[in-house]
Amino acid sequence: xxxxxxxxxxxxxxxxxxxxxxxxxxxxxxxxxxxxxxxxxxxxxxxxxxxxxxxxxxxxxxxxxxxxxxxxxxxxxxxxxxxxxxxxxxxxx
Length: 93
Description:
By secondary structure, the protein is mostly helical.
C-alpha cells in the first residue's frame, strides 16, 4: 500500500497482479483464459451474472441472449459464436 500511495506502483498494476494471484488459487487455474461468456438470464433479470467469477471475466466478451436456458439451442450458440468471431477485441481501449 505504501508503494501505491507514494506513486511507485500504479493501482491498475495492483489490480492486475491481484487478479493473477486469485486465478492461481482458483479451480480454473489450469484452464485457458475465457474469451466469450454467454449468460442466459432468468425471468426476473435477463442480465443476471450473480458475480459469476468476476475476477476471471474482466476482459471477456459478454453475450446476453434473448432466450432463457431451457430454450437455448445449438443454433443460438452458433449464431453467438459467429458474431463473436467477427468482432475486434479492444480490451477496454
